[in-house]
Design brief:
The structure holds two protein chains of two kinds.
Chain A: E1 2-9, E2 12-20, E3 24-28, H1 38-44, E4 48-53, H2 69-84, E5 88-93, H3 95-106, E6 111-117, H4 134-141, H5 155-169, H6 176-181, E7 188-194, H7 202-212, E8 216-221, H8 228-231, H9 233-246, H10 255-258
Helix pairs in contact in A: 1-9, 2-3
Chain B: E1 2-7, H1 30-49, E2 54-57, H2 71-79, E3 86-93, H3 99-112, E4 117-122, H4 128-131, H5 139-155, E5 160-163, E6 168-172, E7 186-189, H6 193-201, E8 205-208, H7 214-230, E9 240-248, H8 252-270, H9 272-284, H10 291-306, H11 309-315, E10 318-321, H12 323-337, E11 341-345, H13 353-371
Parallel strand pairs in B: 1-2, 1-11, 2-3, 3-4, 4-7, 7-8, 8-9, 9-10, 9-11
Antiparallel strand pairs in B: 5-6
């Protein structure tokens, strides 16, 4: 059961939802805004999941100090210190993965383990990105349209979120300063890509992370596109849970999983 | 026109048809088995000297129909006894196997042979699903995922995990990687409309076997071409491989007698229990997604069994006769199907190896010079 809360950070107010019990887990949403997936419910069975709304998204107040992706990462660092109260595991989805990478690079002391789902920020210019045509966007987002959730917000709010993302992202496909900073990430990292992802094409972004982040694992999820948590909720949920609970030991299939 | 010399490696010494499937192996003689392997592999090595472009073999289980539970072992035996000929594994039945192991063994063959592998990624005929206790309902979906995974194994230079419906691996990084870039050419079976569509989707070389009727084969080719066009790919003619039982002798009558004798053993002994097992799988599973495809498969087996040699030639389902007749038959089929490659099986049933060799010599000396520029 998730409940809605507000908190005041050094840069301004922030809204977040919280659910579950156990070690803290911060979930950073993507361009469109927070979407409550079945994966969040699954993770909440063993974690206290924090699911903030990035400042300015979904009509929430913008923080004047936030002008870039790395600025937004600093807001989440503030959230970890102020609301969660100490280091935690972090999941970043798509644009949220870009933010999470900056968070882990700039504040390695605050991120214990890092999961990146189809992260943005490291793709070649001219490849991938979010289509503007709604039908094409839907097609590229979901490999399993039968599992797509109903819209969580109006089109006006969605496009306002997207404009904000474009402003912070500044039209950058390959964030060179981030690429240079990847070696600073100390968190063990799991990178997930859908085999059919055209929005965040796995290559060469995945290789950039594999060579840049010191402790990283990469897994392809079959029959999934960009929205991993909706295309394959059970597999993605189980994979992330295994990684968060067992660290590198997730490579060794447990008897329960094998059965 | 290119040619593949294909071998099924049949067991030739049964007096009676096996009573049931799987065939009991009490009468298998290892010493005789060695003789057959030696002779068959010699024949495949000889194919290179006869001008064939590929030499091919495949995988079958639990039956005297073919002595290759793993055709990659035959491929490995051919690597150092051949120089330029492509080694066509036609192929590994990937839904039954560990796809990562398939990727590894194929990569080994490709590197050991200096890039001569043609990688058949095959669903397998229905009864093989009993042999390896795999749900035949899942065969198509397993094949789709396994092929995707195998391609990833071949092309991904960084370690990766795979979280799929049927296959899960936490970390993969195969050694060696294949010689050919981005990966060895892939061949898939396209003997019915479902599989032709699937094959085209992957832009694979299409393999047509058991052609009972040229019009049906033409339809599969058209479906394949439409599917490749949808992928923005126009397959060259040699991406269409048509399989033919072939008997070339010095005169027509000798060829027809030889083929008829070999086919009697093939249908009466080698295929009898297999047909029962295939019917069982087809009727008790959703191996074929569309019911009529399963019916077509059964009808085709029956048709191939009941036709005379003359009727088979007329239908365009075998090549048989003197070199001149076979040349004419090949030209007719090529004109109708537009294929750029034939897959020729000379060892049908228990046709003597000496007759097979004579046919290969006639192919080299008389047939190939007349058809290689088709």
């Amino acid at each position: 059961m998730f409940t809605t809360h507000t908190a005041t950070l050094s840069t301004g107010p922030i809204t977040y939802r919280k659910g579950g019990s156990g070690p803290a887990l911060l979930h950073i949403h993507g361009t469109g805004g927070p979407n409550h997936s079945p994966v969040l419910d699954a993770l909440a069975r063993r974690h206290t999941v924090y699911h903030p709304v990035a400042p300015g998204w979904d009509g929430t107040p913008r923080h004047g100090a936030v002008r870039s992706v790395s600025d937004l990462a600093d807001v989440y660092a503030d959230f970890i210190r102020t609301v969660i109260g100490g280091p935690c595991d972090v999941i970043g989805v798509s644009f949220g993965g870009w933010v999470a990478l900056w968070l882990a690079a700039r504040h390695p002391d605050l991120v214990q383990q890092l999961v990146l789902e189809a992260p943005a920020g490291l793709r070649d210019p001219g490849t991938g990105g979010l289509p503007t045509d709604p039908q094409e966007l839907h097609r590229q987002t979901y490999a399993r349209p039968d599992r797509a959730p109903p819209p969580a917000r109006s089109q006006d709010v969605y496009w306002a979120n997207r404009r904000l993302r474009d402003e912070l992202g500044a039209g950058i496909s390959l964030d060179q300063p981030l690429l240079d900073s990847l070696p600073k990430i100390t968190a063990r990292t799991l990178v997930l890509f859908g085999v059919k992802d055209e929005i965040s094409p796995p290559m060469p972004a995945a290789h950039r992370m594999r060579t840049g982040i010191p402790h990283v694992h990469m897994t392809y999820v079959y029959d999934a596109a960009h929205a991993l948590e909706f295309d394959q909720p059970e597999k993605v949920g189980a994979l992330i849970a295994a990684f968060l609970e067992r660290g590198e030991g997730f490579l060794v299939r447990s008897a329960a999983a094998a059965g | 026109m290119k040619f593949c010399y294909f071998h099924l490696m049949p067991w030739t010494d049964l007096a009676e048809a096996p009573a049931q499937w799987p065939a009991r192996n009490a009468s298998f003689s290892p010493e005789r088995g060695k003789e057959l392997y030696d002779s068959y592999i010699d024949s495949m090595v000889f194919a290179e000297q006869c001008g064939f472009d590929w030499v091919g073999c495949n995988e079958h289980h639990f039956s005297p129909y073919g002595l290759m539970a793993n055709c990659n072992l035959i491929g490995a035996a051919l690597v150092h006894r051949t120089r330029d000929i492509k080694l066509a594994m036609l192929g590994n039945l990937v839904p039954l196997l560990n796809p990562v192991r398939v990727a590894e063994e194929y990569a080994m063959l490709d590197v050991m042979s200096g890039g001569r592998l043609v990688a058949g990624l095959i669903r397998g005929v229905p009864h093989e699903y009993i042999a390896y206790n795999v749900n035949a309902d899942e065969s198509r979906a397993r094949l789709r995922e396994a092929v995707s995974l195998i391609i990833k194994c071949w092309t991904e230079p960084e370690p990766f995990g795979w979280e799929g419906e049927f296959y899960q691996y936490p970390a993969i990084s195969i050694w060696p990687r294949p010689w050919q870039r981005p990966h060895p050419p892939i061949l898939m079976s396209a003997s019915n409309e479902e599989s032709a569509e699937f094959c085209g989707e992957f832009k694979a070389i299409m393999g047509l076997t058991l052609i009972a009727d040229l019009a049906i084969a033409r339809r599969s080719i058209d479906i394949y071409k439409r599917a490749t066009a949808a992928q923005g790919f126009t397959p060259p003619p040699d991406y269409i491989l048509c399989g033919y039982n072939t008997c070339i002798m010095d005169d027509d009558a000798e060829a027809r007698e030889t083929l008829a004798e070999g086919q009697r053993y093939f249908h009466r002994v080698l295929m009898s229990s297999i047909r029962d097992a295939q019917r069982l799988v087809i009727t008790r599973s959703r191996y074929f997604g569309q019911e009529q495809v399963g019916e077509t498969f059964v009808k085709r087996l029956v048709a191939l069994k009941e036709r005379t040699i003359e009727e088979q030639i007329e239908a365009g389902s075998v090549f048989c006769g003197s070199p001149d007749k076979v040349i004419a038959q090949m030209k007719r089929v090529q004109a109708e199907l537009g294929n750029g490659m034939f897959n020729l099986n000379f060892k049908i049933g228990n046709i003597p190896d000496a007759s097979v060799r004579r046919g290969m010599e006639l192919f080299r000396d008389k047939v190939l010079p007349a058809v290689q520029d088709l």
